[in-house]
UniProtKB/TrEMBL annotation:
Coiled coil stretches, renumbered: none
Name of this chain's protein: NADP-dependent oxidoreductase domain
Biological processes, Gene Ontology terms: L-ascorbic acid biosynthetic process
One Gene Ontology cellular component annotation held by this UniProt entry: cytosol
Cross-referenced Pfam families: Aldo_ket_red
Gene3D superfamilies xrefs: NADP-dependent oxidoreductase domain
Domain NADP-dependent oxidoreductase: start-end pairs: 16-128
Signal peptide (residue range): none
């Protein structure tokens, strides 16, 4: 798998990323075992870039509020420095909120639900809709 530098960040991301929505049963049920196998297979293929769902819209809460992606990454036993995780903020079940307070809370929620100490990338999700629809 080809890795490319992401701008001036120093991050080298795989040209193919792994979107974690399917792990949250967004498109149909998935077992914990299949989720772990999917993440393991992606890593075996050289994919190192994983995107989690929005913090409050996710259906992937399992086992005490932990997201399936967090469970799978922990289960495969790969070093944290060997993969890149992005998460999203802004589009919440309460509506659109890009305030500093809500963005900070979104990051904290993602870290807790992913069982990580840090995320590499934070994406403002659907910011254009927030501008047109409002908070």
């Amino acid at each position: 798998m080809e890795l490319r530098e992401l701008g001036n960040t120093g991050l080298k991301v795989s040209t193919v990323g792994f979107g974690a929505a399917p792990l949250g049963s967004v498109y149909g049920p998935i077992t914990k075992e299949d989720a772990i196998a999917s993440v393991r297979h992606a890593l075996d293929l050289g994919i190192n870039f994983f995107t989690s769902l929005c913090t409050t819209l996710s259906l992937s809460y399992v086992e005490g509020g932990i997201w399936m992606l967090g469970i799978a990454l922990k289960a495969v036993g790969v070093l944290r420095s060997d993969y890149i995780v992005s998460t999203k903020c802004g589009h919440c079940k309460e509506g659109f909120d890009f305030s500093a307070e809500r963005v900070t809370r979104s990051i904290d929620e993602s870290l807790s639900r992913l069982q990580l100490d840090y995320v590499d990338i934070l994406q403002c999700h659907d910011i254009e809709l927030g501008l047109f629809i409002g908070s």
